[in-house]
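SEQUENCE-TO-STRUCTURE ENTRY
===========================

Backbone structure tokens: a row of integers, each naming the local backbone shape at its residue.

Task: work out the structure tokens from the sequence, keeping to the layout shown below.
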Amino acid sequence: MTPGRVSGAEAGAVSGAVVSAVALGYVQVALPARPLISDYALVSGGMAPVLIGMLALAGACLFLAYGLAAREPSRSAATRVLLVAGAAGLMLSALFPTDPGLSEVSSLGGEIHRWSAAVFFTALPVAGWALARRYEPLPRWNAVRAMSATSALALAGFLAAHPASFTSSPINGDAYYGLLERGLVLAEIALVAVMAVASARRAHPAAPTAATPEPEVDSGKPERLAA
């Protein structure tokens, strides 16, 4: 793979993140307001864009894992495992829709959706941090670290404010937990894109040094004397 070039894997990861963000924006603008993003799948016209957004982001994670395997197989093993786990969690969340309601889970499918989403939300910030910590503090890796920390903080805030949490009532989480979830999803979409761009940008190869002249080989013949 040529240094400094963006491969198809990283381009696919960025494209998947963009499609996911567009799908999120569409359901937010075109459909009636819902508390959580996954709730849009339960309203008319919401299933298709929600599935497209989730599967596109899962595909972005898989593209990124493949690109890392091609570029940095030894440094990115833990990150690739976390990305694949996150993609699997997201696909399970798409396959098993959420149950209607705020905090009660009334079916096996709803339980699978909740825990698979938890795997995705947790895996991505850890994946970003695990990858960036192996590199020097260059701007692109600092951006990965910053987005990983932002995603982790957004996840902590969302979990604290969710109605199912015992901390929700003291902090009045019902008023803004949906906003926190949207911020968390956007942060993780951005994290995937930033990781793809950072992993694709490699230092250009050093300029070749001047060729060392080869020593002359004595042919064994006497040199002709100048006249």
Observations:
- The two ends are 59 Å apart (CA to CA).
- Helices lie at 8-30, 47-71, 77-95, 108-132, 139-161, 177-200.
